[in-house]
Structure formats: structure tokens, C-alpha cells
Amino acid sequence: MRALGSALEVRYGHGHYGLEDDQRSVGYDDYGMGPPPMHPGGYGTMPGLGRGPAAMDRRRLRSCEDTLDGDVVGVDPYAWGVPMTMERGSMASLDSTLRKGPPGTWRQPELPEVIAMLNYRLDPVKINAAAFLQHLTFKNDKVKSEVRRLKGIPSLVSLLDHPTKDVHHSACGALKNISFGRDQENKIAIKNCDGVPALVRLLRKTHDQDLTDTITGTLWNLSSHDSVKMEIVDHALHALADEVVVPHSGWERASHGGEESCKPRHLEWETALTNTAGCLRNVSSERSEARRKLRECTGLVDSLMYVVQSQINRKDVDNKLVENCVCLLRNLSYHVHREVPGCERYAETAPVNQGPVPANKGGCFGSRKGKGKKDGDDGSGDVVDIPKRTTPAKGYELLYQPEVVRVYTSLLRESKNPSVLEAAAGAIQNLCAGRWTYGRYIRATVRLEKGLPMIAELLAHGNDRVVRAMSGALRNLSIDNRNCQLLGLHAVPHLVANLPGGQSQSGRTLSEETVVSVLSTLTEVLGNSVEAAKTLRTSQGIERLVLINKDGKRSEREVRGAGQVLQLVWAHKELRKPLEKDGWKKTDFMVNLSATNGPSTRANGTYEDSTTPLLDRGEKRDMIPLNDLGPEAYSTLDQRERRHTLDETTDTLPRGVYGGRKGSLPLLDSYDG
């Protein structure tokens, strides 16, 4: 037991266990970002004792991935450390169990013995046993499974209701490590013994920052499993909002005229807020009922918006806190036009892409000067009639106010984090979906905020998912006739640059899902515009589209998309002679499905990160016909959810669909799962 006690010196500030959240949630290494910078709150799972000016908690000086194993190289992981003086009374009754040989010698405890000590009557034994389990389970999936098999998880959960604070730290730290990793059975085991309600009870009664960090980290780990998501929504949502997000975001203080010159409150609790936002980010992907409860949770959306805006003001938008908050806001924006209370008031029955194109209005891409100046591409700027609110927006209303566009365009301008860029564009894409009043306002506001050129330029980003998000946003933005006109003149070259072939891709290989998205956006942007078709021709777009159509190496979905665009170009009779002079024949503009490269192979759906666009891993998603569908038919919603919300659609393209443009493409929703 002395070996056990010395091993458990970690409980008293000897070492640091990194924040071991599920990699599907955290994803620090997805883009080579590294962990978020350390702050006074730390990322450790253990509190330290003996604090004071000369005894700073050593845990806070360690890196995020540092462990005690680095201090004891070559030592058996079940027994390590230097002997530590403990209360002899807590050891006497265990002497016969752990002592063998001559007096004064000790042996290392076996795992079943350690688990049995969790139920021992003396608190120091419970504390040390739980802390030792925390050490043993760190990045050791085999030990985690053994703890589960030996029924150690129910014992740890029961310790969360123990009256002693030190027991809470040790037990919760062990549960956080056990809940981390690919073995989903550990998460299910914690859920099945009412681990979530126990964590919530502890969260509500503690005021300790380190313990709050550990509780929220455990919930973040658990939230990556689908079967636990609604459990968290039903039992933990209001506690997370009331105890972490609202009080520690700084929103309440600011809304009551608090001092703005002091250190932002959310920075003092950054770890707990990051964990909580990550947890809610995951559960918001579960189903519409989960999103409804999150949107209607008092103060949640207000606090998230406040944190993001505060970080924008500080020009610090690439950390994990901002990423989780923006991804959560993106999820809450999904289907907002038909899921928020009273949404029927904002429905518009007329097709959203009808109406005259404003003439002589300034474009957000800048005016042309002198020779080559085009009508409709100069002037003083568009005027959009957006009624003023009589009362300030609050709660879920903040999600779709035109003012939120400035938040997302600021992130697109300032952030270098691919996940933040993807989420900001996805939120814009979601808000522009659907035939509703605020969707029309958002499309116009993005144009007025110079967001169109910003999004078009980000099509050159090196990350596949960022390119796809930008393409989807432009597709929904182009439903606005003025946006479509501007994008047809200025964004087509950026879209063409992402098609296979040519030399401008700088070695990038985009996924099939992204190429199909770009082709769909090109179809929407070209529409009936001969000027956009001319821009496509001068941008080497015809060469790339024909290559997709005929090289035999592309998927059926890509070939269909390319054929759709080629047919739109050939439909302009005034372009046929110039095209023939370029050496093209009519047959080049006909879809060639016989040249496809077999079944669809896509990267989307193979991502491990639970916050990527929703799709079951390895599950096939068919291309939805490009015409004759409603405005919400094309969605990246998880197939599990689609079975409950959308009719199944086939991968059959109607005959004659390429003969003319009978309607706009279905709107594309973006979803962060």
C-alpha cells in the first residue's frame, strides 16, 4: 500500500495529467494547430495541495500531454514513485494484503485490489485508489477495459456523491480518462450507471475551478457517443448553462453595464467553457429536439455570441474555445428557418430567386473603371430594406439577425483555424437556406458587408473541408439575384480553379464531395447568364469540365455535375460559334456516364471527428437530382436524421434535365455534426 500511496503522489501536486478529451471532439492535430495555450486555469485533471507563493501548483507548469510516466521511465506502470508518508491508520488494516516477505517490504497492488479499495471505509484509501486508477488509465485502453470488466466504473461514479472534496477530484479524474478514447463501451458503461446525473449533481454543488474543469471535460468525452447525447441534453444542459456558460462568459455582467476594462471573465474559466462548448457542440448534432432545447436554454445563445464577439475584439479567434462556440452556433443555425417557434411567420411562398435584378448598383467585388465598365457593376452600393426591430433580439433570435453576418465575416477575415472558417461559412450557408424572410435579409447583408469576395477568395484555401464550406455558402448566397450576378462575373474563376485538371491547384487533391459541391455552385451561379458562361470559357472551365466528363477516372456524381454545367453553357446559342472555333464539338457538352469510374468513393463520412458534417461512417449518400426539388432537399444532414425529416431521394437524373434550366438548385444546408 505504501507503493500505492507513493504512486498516488500525483493527487498532491506531483504531476500533471493532460486534458484527455476524445480526439473526435478535440482534434488539436487535425490541422497542426497544437493544443490551446495554457492559462492560469490549467488543463490538468488533478488539483494540487500546498499552494502558496513558494509552492505553485506544478501541474500548471506541465504541457498538455505531459504525464508522470515521463518522470519514471522504465518503471512498471502499476507501481512507481517515491515512498510517501501517509497516515498510518489508513494503512494498518491493509498490511496483511499488501505486505509479503520480511517486515518493511511491500508489493505493488493488483488492479482488482485497487478497484476493491474504492469501496474501502477510509477516505484516504478511496482517494489514493481513484487517483492511481487515473494514472493507470491514462492513454491505456487495455487498462480502461479491465476497469470496466472488473466493475470499477460504478464504484467511481458512486464516489461523485461522496461528501469529501478530495474524493471528488480523484474519482472524477479517473472517469475523465476512462471516458476518453475509441472504446465506446466505456462511455456506455458510465451512462448506464447514471454517471451523467451524478456528474451534474457534483457540478451544481462545487465552486472549485479545477473540479469544474474535470467534470466538463468528462462530459465532453461522453458527448461524442450518440447514445449519450440526449442523456446529456436531458440531464446536463441547464446545469452547464447555469453553472458554467452564463455566469463565466461575462455576458451577464456586460449586459448590466459591468466594467469592460477588466480582464474578460471567460478567460478566467477558459478550460471549463471550452469543455462545455465542445460538449454542447457534439450533442447539438443529435436531432432537432436537441437543437430546440439548446436554442431555448436561457442565456446560452447570448453567452456564446458574447464570447465570440469578445474574442474577435481581442483578435484572438484561433483557439479551441472560439472553434467550439462557432461550431455550436453553426449547428444551432441548421434548419433554423423551420425549427424555431413561430417560424411560419417568416415563410415566403414566392420562389426566393425571382424578381428583377437591380440595375446600376455597386458590387461588393469593387467597381470597374474606364474601358470595359459594365452596367450594374458600379454605383454607390445596394440599398436593402431591412426593418428596424422595436425590441432588442435575445436568445435564439440572435442566431438569424442580419447583424450576426458581421460576426461571421469577421471570423472569415481574421481566423487561420480551418475549423473556424468552415463553421463560419457553414453558419452563413444555413441561414441563407429556406424560403424565409431572414434568409433574404442575410443574403443581402453578406453582400453589403463585402462577404462575397471574402468567401470567393477562401476557395483557394488548402483545406478540403474549408473549400467545400465556402462553395456551399456561395451556392445559397447566389439565390439572391444580385449576388448571382456578381458571383457570375467575379467568382467563377475561383470555382473553376477547384476543378480537377489544370496547373492552378498547386498539388491539391479535393474530395469527390467537394468537387460535386463546386459543380453544383457553378450550376447555380451560371443560371441563364451568358456573361457568367463567357467568364467560365475564359477561365479554362470548359477544358476542366470536359476532362471530368470524359477521362473515365471520375465518379458518376462528378460526371453528372460537369455535364449539367456544360449543358448550361451550350444552351447559349450565341456562344456556340466561339466554342466551335475553340475546337469544341456538340458531343463534348453531352454527359458521358459510361466513362465513370465505378462506385462512388468519397472522403466525407470517414472523418473521425464527431464535429464534421453529419454522415454515418462508410454510409453512401446519393446525389440528389439537380432540378424539380424543393428549396431544402439538398442537405448534408446525417442519414439517420434524414430518415425522420426528409423523404428518401434517388440518384436518378430526370430525362431532359440538361435541356434547359427549369428551376434553381435545391438549397444546401451545412451541418456540423
From TrEMBL:
<comment type="similarity">
    <text>Belongs to the beta-catenin family.</text>
</comment>
<dbReference type="GO" id="GO:0005737">
    <property type="term" value="C:cytoplasm"/>
</dbReference>
<feature type="region of interest" description="Disordered">
    <location>
        <begin position="643"/>
        <end position="673"/>
    </location>
</feature>
<feature type="repeat" description="ARM">
    <location>
        <begin position="151"/>
        <end position="188"/>
    </location>
</feature>
<keyword id="KW-0965">Cell junction</keyword>
<protein>
    <recommendedName>
        <fullName>Catenin delta-1</fullName>
    </recommendedName>
</protein>
<dbReference type="GO" id="GO:0098609">
    <property type="term" value="P:cell-cell adhesion"/>
</dbReference>
<dbReference type="GO" id="GO:0005634">
    <property type="term" value="C:nucleus"/>
</dbReference>
<feature type="repeat" description="ARM">
    <location>
        <begin position="450"/>
        <end position="483"/>
    </location>
</feature>
<dbReference type="InterPro" id="IPR011989">
    <property type="entry name" value="ARM-like"/>
</dbReference>
<feature type="region of interest" description="Disordered">
    <location>
        <begin position="358"/>
        <end position="387"/>
    </location>
</feature>
<keyword id="KW-0130">Cell adhesion</keyword>
<feature type="repeat" description="ARM">
    <location>
        <begin position="194"/>
        <end position="237"/>
    </location>
</feature>
<dbReference type="GO" id="GO:0005912">
    <property type="term" value="C:adherens junction"/>
</dbReference>
<dbReference type="InterPro" id="IPR028435">
    <property type="entry name" value="Plakophilin/d_Catenin"/>
</dbReference>
<dbReference type="Pfam" id="PF00514">
    <property type="entry name" value="Arm"/>
</dbReference>
<dbReference type="GO" id="GO:0005886">
    <property type="term" value="C:plasma membrane"/>
</dbReference>
<feature type="compositionally biased region" description="Polar residues">
    <location>
        <begin position="595"/>
        <end position="613"/>
    </location>
</feature>
<dbReference type="InterPro" id="IPR016024">
    <property type="entry name" value="ARM-type_fold"/>
</dbReference>
<keyword id="KW-0677">Repeat</keyword>
<feature type="region of interest" description="Disordered">
    <location>
        <begin position="595"/>
        <end position="614"/>
    </location>
</feature>
<keyword id="KW-0963">Cytoplasm</keyword>
<dbReference type="InterPro" id="IPR000225">
    <property type="entry name" value="Armadillo"/>
</dbReference>
<keyword id="KW-0539">Nucleus</keyword>
